[in-house]
């Protein structure tokens, strides 16, 4: 854009030319300036205005020459600003900085001089100095929204996202109708991991630019992050109709359809996005994910391997390798699967590992190793079994979430003194740890090719004790998921958990509406105990005892007195499995790899036993789809199985 400094000394013709340039009429502006220069070739302002025209047309080389001509005639500060911009556009950062320095010295009260200096310093990698220059520009124009936005963007590029958001909020207060301010603030919220909060700001941008596919795609993504899937779908479908073949819109629409359970529609959208941009590794990984959910694992595997071995970014290769790992684990190809599963480490936030080096499974000469919980409570419970083989290589310090601490303290490797459980506030280094490893990484670093077999590690009052084993093999179970000869007292006590964490983006597919459980009301002789936190039992279509307050140990003690646990895929399934309680898992179509066929083994009677939890029985959705429909068959099967138990 042309600079306006010194306008009081410019002739009307130069002012007219700059006015034309400001509205995009560069051709008429240039013609007017050429006429003026033919009349007076010593007009410095006209040569400078010609430099502005050249810059606007993308001809930085000519702009440098023209600005130099103006400076030769009269070395004004704003001429040096234009020269600095033009040099910077040619990637001549140091000469640009020298020109900006002259501008700052000549016109220290002109914020544009400090802004171009900031751009030059940033190009030279001097980010802190660039930030100081922008703060100077802001002090000169404290009520200018643009100055706040420039500083916010600079802070964000330095990774100071929290501070950038504070500055961006000031910009919005100064100019609440500025669309660019809303867009930048939304992008900063996304970068800060607060995408849910970005929706109203992206909404303003999408409303202002309904034909801009990226703007609408961003709004849809923010709605998706909020869990407003139906609204996100409407917004994205409308955008897809307005702007055909927009990969970002089709991708976000496909992810929304996945979250809602419309896997066929998701496959269509994600496939279309990839077809429009076949070299985009991120789109390829997304498409592979829906293929895996549809059970088309061979196609998904081929796609993930293609991305992993291609020219994709490091993050996209990691995403592809991690997803490949889940496919391999679902198929029971554990040795390679564990290694690929490790790619998740580069996708997760940094863990609290005190800067300890990663343990590779080798002996440590008696020095302890920190084993830490990495993700959810269910994952932690599942992988705690690997503490035992780890003890064969090194002494173990164990760090678990507070909600699990009292339960893990009851596990025999802790209560027996073989493992030290870190207390809140205690550091691993203070007790001699020399390395660390995530619990989920133990199968890979120990080189294990099969799931480590289940055994009961914790005994609670009322628990049934260890499940029967024969020579280390899984015992036969009856079709109800109980030991074949186990008597069941009446009334039968059944624990019930029907919903997972709503923050999980695919929770809509794994959780049930309470109304779905209506068939259980028809089963006589059953007393239901809720194992569900933060959900009212009054929503159930039958009476149930609420879950008392407490941690997972108190839930485990309650669970120990139950006859069967009926649950969706959440921590309750793992807790029941760890305790060896009969657990009936209501499993979504395309469910987690640990419930797939690769994690099971045939047992006498034609049944299959889960390798992680022998007491687990699956009741899986036979088809995918939206809403409650896909749950009808598995819930009815649970009701039928309960009837059989009551009659035993």
From TrEMBL:
Protein name: N-acetylglucosamine transferase
Keywords: Repeat, TPR repeat
First and last residues of every TPR repeat: 145-178
Source domain of life: Bacteria
Phylogenetic placement of the source organism: Bacteria, Pseudomonadati, Pseudomonadota, Alphaproteobacteria, Acetobacterales
Stored InterPro entries: O-mannosyl-transferase_TMTC, TPR-like_helical_dom_sf, TPR_rpt
Gene3D superfamilies (UniProt xref): Glycogen Phosphorylase B, Tetratricopeptide repeat domain
């Amino acid at each position: 854009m042309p600079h306006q400094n010194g306008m009081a000394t410019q002739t009307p013709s130069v002012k007219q030319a700059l006015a034309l340039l400001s509205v995009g009429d560069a051709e008429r502006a240039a013609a007017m300036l050429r006429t003026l220069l033919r009349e007076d070739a010593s007009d410095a302002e006209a040569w400078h205005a010609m430099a502005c025209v050249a810059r606007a047309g993308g001809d930085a080389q000519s702009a440098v020459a023209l600005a130099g001509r103006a400076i030769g005639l009269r070395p004004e500060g704003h001429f040096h600003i234009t020269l600095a911009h033009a040099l910077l556009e040619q990637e001549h950062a140091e000469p640009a900085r020298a020109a900006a320095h002259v501008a700052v010295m000549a016109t220290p009260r002109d914020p544009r001089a400090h802004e171009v200096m900031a751009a030059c310093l940033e190009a030279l990698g001097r980010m802190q100095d660039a930030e100081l220059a922008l703060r100077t520009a802001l002090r000169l124009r404290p009520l200018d929204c643009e100055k706040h936005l420039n500083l916010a963007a600079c802070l964000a590029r330095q990774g100071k996202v929290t501070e950038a958001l504070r500055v961006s909020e000031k910009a919005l207060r100064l100019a609440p109708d500025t669309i660019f301010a809303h867009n930048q603030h939304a992008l900063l919220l996304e970068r800060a991991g607060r995408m849910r909060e970005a929706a109203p700001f992206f909404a303003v941008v999408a409303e202002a630019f309904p034909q801009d596919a990226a703007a609408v795609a961003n709004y849809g993504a923010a709605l998706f992050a909020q869990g407003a899937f139906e609204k996100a779908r409407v917004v994205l479908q409308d955008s897809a109709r307005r702007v055909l073949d927009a990969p970002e819109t089709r991708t976000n629409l496909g992810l929304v359809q996945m979250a809602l359970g419309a896997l066929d529609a998701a496959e269509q959208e994600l496939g279309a996005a990839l077809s429009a941009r076949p070299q985009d590794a991120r789109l390829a990984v997304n498409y592979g994910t829906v293929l895996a959910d549809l059970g088309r694992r061979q196609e998904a595997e081929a796609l993930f391997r293609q991305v992993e071995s291609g020219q994709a970014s490091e993050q996209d290769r990691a995403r592809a390798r991690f997803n490949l790992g889940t496919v391999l684990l679902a198929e029971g190809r554990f040795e390679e699967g564990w290694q690929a599963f490790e790619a998740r480490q580069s996708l997760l936030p940094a863990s609290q590992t005190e800067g300890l080096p990663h343990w590779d499974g080798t002996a440590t000469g008696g020095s302890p190793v920190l084993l830490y919980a990495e993700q959810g409570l269910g994952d932690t419970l599942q992988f705690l079994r690997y503490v035992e083989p780890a003890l064969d290589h090194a002494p173990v310090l164990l760090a678990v979430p507070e909600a699990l601490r009292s339960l893990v303290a009851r596990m025999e490797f802790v209560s027996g003194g073989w493992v030290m459980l870190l207390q809140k506030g205690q550091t691993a280094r203070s007790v001699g740890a020399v390395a660390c490893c995530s619990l989920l990484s133990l199968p890979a670093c120990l080189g294990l090719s099969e799931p480590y077999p289940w055994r009961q590690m914790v005994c609670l009052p009322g628990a049934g004790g260890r499940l029967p084993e024969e020579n280390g093999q899984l015992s036969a179970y009856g079709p109800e998921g109980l030991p074949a000869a186990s008597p069941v007292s009446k009334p039968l006590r059944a624990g019930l958990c029907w919903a997972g964490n709503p923050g999980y983006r695919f929770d809509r597919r794994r959780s049930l509406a309470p109304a779905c459980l209506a068939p259980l009301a028809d089963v006589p002789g059953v007393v239901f105990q809720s194992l569900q936190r933060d959900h009212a039992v009054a929503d159930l279509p039958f009476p149930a005892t609420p879950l008392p307050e407490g941690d997972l140990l108190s839930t485990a003690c309650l669970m120990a007195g139950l006859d069967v646990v009926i649950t969706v895929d959440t921590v309750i399934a793992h807790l029941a499995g760890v305790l060896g309680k009969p657990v009936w898992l209501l499993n979504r179509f395309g469910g987690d790899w640990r419930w797939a066929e690769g994690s099971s083994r045939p047992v006498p009677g034609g049944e299959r036993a889960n390798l992680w939890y022998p007491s687990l029985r699956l009741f899986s959705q036979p088809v995918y789809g939206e809403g409650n429909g896909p749950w009808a068959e598995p819930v009815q099967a649970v009701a039928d199985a309960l009837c059989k138990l009551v009659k035993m």
